[in-house]
Amino acid sequence: MRHQSEYEAFVRAHRAELLATATSLTAGDRHLAEDLTQATLVRLYLHWGRVRETKAGAYARRALVNCFLDHRRRAWVRREHSVDAPPDRAVDDGVDDPELTGALRALPPRMRAAVVLRHVEDLPVEEVAGLLGCSTGTVKSQTARGLAKLRAHLLETANRGGS
Amino acid sequence: MSEHHEIEGRLRTLRPAPGPTTDEQVAGDVRRGARAAGRRRAVRLATGSVTLAAVGAVAFVAVANQPDTTAPPSAAPTHRGATTAKAAGLKLVDYTGAQQPGFTVGQVPEGFVLQGVSPAVLAVTRPGDATDINDFQDKLVVMLQSQDATFHKTDHPVQVHGGTGYLRDEPGTATTLEYMDGKHDVVVQAWDSLGLTDDQLVEFADGISVTDAAQAGVG
């Protein structure tokens, strides 16, 4: 019971932050963000005994990043998303910057994760490297390439709109 | 450079403000977690039961001095050794059917067939499975990882194809094994409902050869 009450307290305190991060990682796909958050919290529940005292926040964030990277290579996600009726609103409604969000969506998943964690979540390079399981040099190169791709995508979109 | 700074500034505004967490959401997360923990316990119990049954059957055979044919199938040694016995009673057998372009298969779970392939995916299923090959539920699948993906290590390394592969367990869903075969980043995934053990997943992967007809995707 103590296990469960502690877990509940963690979810109450941190769920919204995880969902916000998931929404950034998915480039505004709120339904997928909710799925990833739920999957992350299931993993956390299963490992609560080991991580509850000192590492729950870090574990949850890392699990969320892994869930995001994993979902791109798992077709079972498509089945889990099937519904009887179409959603009554667009999945990316309410995003503040649709052009930039669209450009983010076009990035490969690990590059997108590096850009989002570094520049949207504003995490230090070292922490991003820890979350992605790579070196700080890789984070720097991925974010630099990601920013260049975003810029190129935005320019292309602007040129298309102006022509 | 200033354009990069402008993009960085725009990126910082993308993060949505965290909203409130409702009692219903918390209850849902607890319910899903408890359910996953229950499924995990059930799988462990089932695996333990089979192991005990196998030990009991072997003891009975020894005492009664009966031939091996009295032992249940799960206790019978397979052609690759006793480690392939598992919870759902499946065992790996040599595959003798037609191969598919892109992949050759050495073994499959007994009674399973090759459902089909795409350039980067091979699906192994029970006969009569009419689902799309990209729907992986209740299947054993071999995938070539995207060319843009990074090899994903976990804290569960295993020996496969003469090198190190990494197992990842998605509780209640599937177990994946990722390894390099010298040329390709390969992911083998077994849905939990099959009941394949980690050893069997590795053994299946050892029998897979990826040919030039297979192609990893991008993105």
User: What is the 3D shape of chain A?
Assistant: elongated
CATH C-level label of the largest domain in chain B:
Alpha Beta
Mean pLDDT of chain B: 75
List the quaternary state of the chains: heterodimer
Shape of chain B: globular
Q: How would a crystallographer describe the biggest sheet of chain B?
A: 7 strands, antiparallel
| Biggest protein-protein contact in the assembly | A-B, 53 and 51 residues
Number of domains of chain B: 2
Quickly count the domains of chain A.
2
Which H/E pattern describes the elements of chain A? Answer: HHHHHHHHH
Strand element count of chain A: 0
* CATH-defined architecture of the largest domain in chain B: 2-Layer Sandwich
Any idea of the CATH class of the largest domain in chain A?
A: Mainly Alpha
Record the SSE blueprint.
The complex is a heterodimer of chains A (163) and B (219).
Chain A: H1 2-25, H2 30-46, H3 48-51, H4 56-71, H5 76-81, H6 98-105, H7 109-120, H8 125-132, H9 136-162
Chain B: H1 2-12, H2 23-64, E1 92-94, E2 103-105, E3 107-109, E4 113-118, E5 121-125, E6 140-144, E7 157-160, E8 163-170, E9 174-180, E10 185-191, H3 198-206, E11 208-210
Antiparallel strand pairs in B: 1-3, 2-11, 4-5, 5-6, 6-10, 7-8, 8-9, 9-10
Q: What is the gist of this entry?
A:
The complex is a heterodimer of chains A (163) and B (219). With 163 residues, chain A is mainly α. Helices cover 75% and strands 0% of the residues of chain A.
Description:
Chain A is mostly helical and 163 residues long. Helix content of chain A is 75%, strand content 0%. In chain B, strand 4 and strand 5 form a beta hairpin. Chain B has 2 domains: 59 residues; 121 residues, 2-Layer Sandwich (Phosphorylase Kinase, domain 1). Chain B has 3 helices and 11 strands. The longest helix of chain B has 42 residues. In chain B, the strands form 3 sheets. Chain B has a 7-stranded antiparallel beta sheet with strand order 4-5-6-10-9-8-7, covered by helices on one side. The chains are: A mainly alpha (163), B alpha+beta (219). Chains A and B meet through helix 1, helix 2, helix 5, helix 6 and helix 7 of A and helix 1, helix 2 and strand 10 of B.
